[in-house]
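Notes from hallway chat w/ T.B., transcribed later so I don't forget. T.B. wanted the structure written out for a chain they're using in a teaching module, and asked if we could keep both sequence and structure tokens in one place. Agreed to drop them here.
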Amino acid sequence: MLGTSGEDDRRLVLGVARSANDNAWRERLSASEARAAMAISQMHGLPDVLARVMAARGVVPDQAPEFLEPSLKTLMPDPSLLVDMDAAVTRVADAVQAHKKIAIFGDYDVDGATSSAIFAKYLQWLGLDPVIHIPDRIIEGYGPNGPAIENLRQGGAELLVTLDCGSTSFEAFETARKLDLDVVVIDHHQVGETLPGVHALVNPNRQDDLSGQGHLAAVGVTFLFLVGLNRELRRRGVFEGGRQPDLMALLDLVALGTVCDVVPLKGLNRAYVTRGLAVMHQRRNYGLTALSDTARVSGKPAPYHLGFLIGPRINAGGRIGDAALGARLLTTEDPHEARAIAERLDQLNTERQAMEAVMLEQADAEAALAVEAREPAVLLTGSDDWHPGIVGLIASRLKETYRRPAFAISYDETGKGTGSGRSISGVDLGKAVRQAVEDGLLEKGGGHAMAAGLTVRREKAAELESFFNEVLKEEVEAATAHRELKVDAALTATGATLDLMELLEKAGPYGAGHSEPVFAFPAHRISFADVVGKGHVRATLAAGDGSTLKGICFKAEDKPYGRMLLEGRGKALHVAGTLSIDTWQGTPKVQLRILDVADPQKVRL
């Protein structure tokens, strides 16, 4: 155990006050959490390292058994607790019983695609033939729009259900009202007090909703809705003499949308992902299986595979190709069609990566100049040449590089800019964007704390930048005052075993709001280091007893910690990172994803 020195004063780990990446390495556990870890270990007979990981993530001793076995039955609330849920369930149940044509309008990201897919598959199980419309990001923009609603109505739609969008679609739903088309909204985005006039609007983040489920992704809310709908249809006797839909079979898609929307993996979300990964391992969804194979996912599915291999390929369709490809892939029952769509999405993802590289070079140059000239709290970059489908990725990269909120904006020939922003922990970007809309600086905008979208005129960009820097300056300063890497425990290469990984898996899955454990490896000799792939640095760490551990740090060739590894061959360095299992030719081995490096000779004790 590394030990602590106070409730709010976590001691330095290995004396590292300033690492290669300019971080102080600090113990993740506070004094009270260290006591909780000891109690968890003693009360439940759990290994110390597992107890420390659990306590550092807010688990108290009495909750340990339930935490290790997250159960949907235990964690899922009554769907009726959500405002308007019963009205939504009743309206859709009526349409199902009457075999009405239901149109689904989903967002163009993974959360929208998975939400649309699970609802459509449920309706298909009941013998209905729903139509799914995913808007074109460039032509239609985000959310429901009048022309699309008119087309759906002309196509025979008698009920419109919007998923992962619609909470602020006032004009579009006025069109629906004039067409005598009922609308049910299922969403999770933050909204103000005024809501559009629809039959039902289910959103745990609406201000009058007290369900406590605001952490759910849209697909999680949609699954709750299906639980309520299934209950209502069963009460009406719809399933008498027939087999009920298998809701549990949809959890692989619920897990995918939850991970890719980067919502906190706590409570119900953690149960969704845990159960969903097990369903995904069964390879029951043709589309998900085909895309996993195309992305060369090996071993047991993990959140990493969903967030970094599968999700980006689905998103590629919405960014630069056909936005409907993702939903089609996840709903198809034809393995040949699934394979063809998966290959197309993989190709689009490759094209997206090439476009992103060019855009990022330009954005990084603009951001570097801004930081050098005026040290803005928020970065605002833009270009006439950028693809609007990729600006969110650029904003994310800038945020990571400069450790502050960042926006990237694509302007069209009229001077209208479509932008996306990404924030850092402790800075609520969605709130600032909504305020900018109210102040007339933006044509439209919205989002949540960590990500937001906006539409702005070029002539307003400078004023918008000043606004963001004024309203977010204090939050950014507070969030960036202390650069640190939180470490869970110290290990040696000898201790990084498959048995340890099996132990750590019990406290997973890890992701947003439930971070992977970080381990420090003290004074390990760098026996090998070189550059591989596109700027990645791989290295082999050797402990004093001769045991070794292979590690890699991604895109680090030109970064301080990458250079320290490359220049440190034969030297003993402190190395910190997260552990994972790398399966090669059927043989699993533990691998370290290196996050930071420090020179033992230069730490401040």
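Follow-up for T.B.: Confidence is low (pLDDT under 50) at residues 1-8. Might be a good example for the class.
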